[in-house]
Design brief:
The structure is a homotetramer. In chain A, α1 packs antiparallel against α3 (131-144) and α5 runs antiparallel to α7. In chain A, strands 1-2-3-7-4 form a 5-stranded antiparallel sheet, covered by helices on one side. The first copy, chain A, has helices at 38-48, 108-115, 131-144, 184-199, 227-236, 257-260, 327-348, and strands spanning 5-6, 11-15, 22-28, 65-67, 71-72, 75-76, 81-86, 101-102, 149-157, 160-161, 206-213, 241-246, 278-279, 282-283, 288-294, 303-308, 313-317. The first copy, chain A, is α+β, with helices and mostly antiparallel strands. In chain A, β13 and β14 form a beta hairpin. Chains B and D meet through loops of B and loops of D. β12 of chain C pairs antiparallel with β12 (241-246) of chain D, so a sheet runs across the interface.
Chain lengths: 354, 354, 354, 354
Amino acid sequence: MGGNSFGNIFKLTTFGESHGPAIGGGIDGCPAGVSIDFDKIQHEMDRRKPGQSKIVTQRKEPDTVTFQSGIFEGVTTGMPIGFIIKNTDQKSKDYSHIKDVFRPSHADFTYNEKYGQRDYRGGGRSSARETACRVVAGAIAKQFLSGISITAYTSSIGTISLGENHHNLDLSKTESNIVRCPDMAVAEAMIAEINTIRKEGDTIGGTVSCVLKNVPVGLGEPVYDRLHAQLGKAMLSINAVKGFEYGSGFEGVKMKGSAHNDTFNADGTTKTNHSGGIQGGVSNGMGIYFNVAFKPVATVMQSQDTIDNAGNLVKMHGKGRHDPCVVPRAVPIVEAMAALVLADFTLLNRLSKK
Amino acid sequence: MGGNSFGNIFKLTTFGESHGPAIGGGIDGCPAGVSIDFDKIQHEMDRRKPGQSKIVTQRKEPDTVTFQSGIFEGVTTGMPIGFIIKNTDQKSKDYSHIKDVFRPSHADFTYNEKYGQRDYRGGGRSSARETACRVVAGAIAKQFLSGISITAYTSSIGTISLGENHHNLDLSKTESNIVRCPDMAVAEAMIAEINTIRKEGDTIGGTVSCVLKNVPVGLGEPVYDRLHAQLGKAMLSINAVKGFEYGSGFEGVKMKGSAHNDTFNADGTTKTNHSGGIQGGVSNGMGIYFNVAFKPVATVMQSQDTIDNAGNLVKMHGKGRHDPCVVPRAVPIVEAMAALVLADFTLLNRLSKK
Amino acid sequence: MGGNSFGNIFKLTTFGESHGPAIGGGIDGCPAGVSIDFDKIQHEMDRRKPGQSKIVTQRKEPDTVTFQSGIFEGVTTGMPIGFIIKNTDQKSKDYSHIKDVFRPSHADFTYNEKYGQRDYRGGGRSSARETACRVVAGAIAKQFLSGISITAYTSSIGTISLGENHHNLDLSKTESNIVRCPDMAVAEAMIAEINTIRKEGDTIGGTVSCVLKNVPVGLGEPVYDRLHAQLGKAMLSINAVKGFEYGSGFEGVKMKGSAHNDTFNADGTTKTNHSGGIQGGVSNGMGIYFNVAFKPVATVMQSQDTIDNAGNLVKMHGKGRHDPCVVPRAVPIVEAMAALVLADFTLLNRLSKK
Amino acid sequence: MGGNSFGNIFKLTTFGESHGPAIGGGIDGCPAGVSIDFDKIQHEMDRRKPGQSKIVTQRKEPDTVTFQSGIFEGVTTGMPIGFIIKNTDQKSKDYSHIKDVFRPSHADFTYNEKYGQRDYRGGGRSSARETACRVVAGAIAKQFLSGISITAYTSSIGTISLGENHHNLDLSKTESNIVRCPDMAVAEAMIAEINTIRKEGDTIGGTVSCVLKNVPVGLGEPVYDRLHAQLGKAMLSINAVKGFEYGSGFEGVKMKGSAHNDTFNADGTTKTNHSGGIQGGVSNGMGIYFNVAFKPVATVMQSQDTIDNAGNLVKMHGKGRHDPCVVPRAVPIVEAMAALVLADFTLLNRLSKK
């Protein structure tokens, strides 16, 4: 119950802190017979890794994954896929200034209360470094799910919003710019905004949107394990996420049922898709789309009031190389979590009929 | 894996369709020694039941729960709490018109594809009638959680929005009107809106907000079982929900980190609460608050284009007594699901230290 | 975690005490499309029910199951199968003599310590009455598993042992006598033994053996969920069970590897079957067979020394109508649990390959 | 569901094959604040490791565990404890002779059928090498469980049996000889027997017994998760195990209830302990004891008939350095699995009362 596993059948279990020797984990339940393209896995890792552009943290971490098991002669064997991502040499002294101090809006205070102690070096387990493991597992899930396309992109940074439905976007352009927004003009504005924020020593939030295409009918389980409920949990488990909506989402509450209903074509497709590709918690074959809200990073390069372990009011000032905005690096993480959910429900869906 | 259980330790498992003999289930993991006030349970049931006011479905169902086990001499024994809620006499003929027709934006099509068949009578398992079981379990969870307050309310109906932070509201007034909005003037407008919509044979969506107070520090598990991830899944598993946000939510993405961070007071409380009472996935002792988006009900009293099992385009017209808006009845369901999450994490939190 | 569920995918969750209004539960994960023969279910119930012969308890309980959900027009729908078995009118006064007294070798003392209280009426949740729910679920699992034969029988009562390998027995004769032993002469001796014991006001143990035929290759999951590990857990979860062995079992430890190894025929079958149809935790297509040890029933019709809640030494004397030996009624329970395990692993085995 | 996790709360998940780069895993749910003595962990590893004496396999593997996470400054943090045990350089050519051949009574055939392929090098995932991970986790569980003693020993090798109840043994002598039998004379006979068997190129089975003392009242969950059911599953999941019995076990079936019942002393202890320290599935504070049957190792240094992938009858001859008897090395594995079960139920038992 420790909260370090995700999924029912296709199941990821991870371990590791940001400043221990390594992070890693195991993927249980990946079927045998999936050919693995290791370059594709590293490609996903590179999309998430620090230092990839001027608008993300300048830390240099190669984020190389080494597999320990479960893949034999390039093909999955049905056995758990163990993997390790070494942490590069960390200067522990960098973190001495936060040993006894609770950083505002971090997990420092809550972990300390819950566990009676904490690994204070850079957030330890609460660091977003853990998401590298998700990207490894998601990259394998994507290869299992060949045929389904999973595409996320940056849809807003601060107040700069793409303002377009995904139907009107050319998502193939997402990776052509460093902020991962498929509209080049909006992307430029977003990049400029992050640069401005970074120079202020501040941070900014944003939104990632994700589109899942060619999802077969039938994924999702009734009642408590609806497809969108598990997608929502997957996204809300990512560091810094504050909200999730799918299909018509929060705007849809303003609509009337007669307008919101997606009437059928003869082939079972629907004329509109306010449902977001999911009806009764089960995929209906239409495109699935959802939005994920990321708050601004809590570590700012400014002086802040806070308290220490003893309850004394102290000042602290962010140090080190942090992201002014997590959103560009969050895009592959959102895709990875979506892939894990779809892989899990794809397997569960084999069990619905006699 | 069938998707009919919720929770890890304090765990609800349900069964039953809207038109079978009964719905019911079992609550496993409720500790021994909780004194049960049965009137409080029925009170929660009454808040959810059909026919309670002019703006909800006029179906008459008493929704009486009978307990089968797990409570002895008025106190929980630690054994599973089994319960049954009988379905009152249903006229199956009422549903003959939908036997071979897929209602738009319902689960008819997806269930039929997934399972190769379906109980077509009123939605069967996909009916929101299942939520009565959640209210039973939530009412027991609330009694286990004595000391924590869980209060939901209607914050928008269509475009009519409360527009106020929960801090400025007197939540004790929520139950004083039939739409369950704590501001009487806004409530009147909401009720009028629902009435108008109902007369049009149409439906409308809305938003439920929820506030959790006196939650101790430490609830929630790291990484994949963050408190807000499980709250999100709980809410997204409720029929008709399209979105979930907590704390600063989707609006918070526009903020800078320096403004969004919640700086500490000496006692560990924070000066602001953009975090929504949760940091690093673990409650920090501040108030927890979140919003849940409900789409308009799919059953409208209008003629709609649809298809039948054979793929023929046909016309259908909603019949029966349906809710023009689910939001007023959803308020106790949101509370119930929040209670289940808190009960589960309260128990898990006993396991964090040696 | 309350311990009231069994299985991963094909999952039974039960509730109910021996002297509450009813016992019951839900079966989650049974695939859609299984035609249900209700007479076969009742037939299994009748094999377990009290009062069926002179060598079992003379309590009269019809043990009629009523299904609440999950079966529509005689076919499973993929939705949870809820069911209720009413407890017939119990005289609570029958149990006043044990309200404050701990019966030796029962759960009275341990439950009281663990939960701080207990439902003292006839054992409450710890009563073997709960096994009626297992028989319901097992009967449905058997219908899902059509093609696999699951046959248990009484192989020893006290010191009277069948002493024959199952290969040399005609298992079709098992149900032809009330002790459920396929050798009529041995059965007579067993029946006489139980009668003698019963007249002494005493009880006796015994062994149930079980044979599973036509099990396809591939059931069972590596490492922790080996087929025999889950079979063992299933059997050890039945009231009064003290041991489980499969294949060559405890006797096999005396063999040399060269003799114990099952060498192959060209078609993948093996010349011997010391492995008991399971290799590496996975079924190999040969017959699976195992033995289950049942201790003598703890309730004897004799005066015994014991203690009460206050720690006072007191005398107690068994009352009521109890089984002198559980083994004849345990035969269908062993089959039911085996069916649940096979149904679960049959579904899991659909997930092993891409 | 892949079968690579054990436990509910204190949960071990492992990965790795015998001839991949490493085996390892993660322990989730170990509470924060447990001081870890790494020497004690290595001591347990040394009890299991190959090459430790003349009667076990002469393979040389140091079996050094390196922890990756979850322990900070020598104390558990409540985060998952990740660990790696590198496989020393393996000569893959040693296994070319079994690439296309199914070894009798191994997992080769069943894995190949289930997964459509297999890692043929030395058994891969089905190798008992995986049990090294169990010993790591069990050693940590033991440190969490300080106060409870967990002691296993060899009680039979082939037909040479200790023949004594554990009450009459001085278990402190178990580690004084290489077969781990607490009676020195019997140990000598067992060692001689294994030596004889080894020289024949054959193998032999045996029995491990285990005693758990100072277990508090209350461990175990009702119905399906009885303490002995989970202990049984734990033991049956160990390679080569064919049977499990606790308390009076298979012999107890011959007893009458009046003799088998454990009558109480005034302090809640019992005069006898046929129950084996567990009543109603819950520990009663008396010593828990059980026996585990291990079959003879399947790899014999003799020529055997078998088949290859294509169904051809072929001869094969065991090669390499294998155990003539697993029992001496299984003793610490049995202890480790018992420790995992007790740690899990110790945590679950915190949840039984309000």
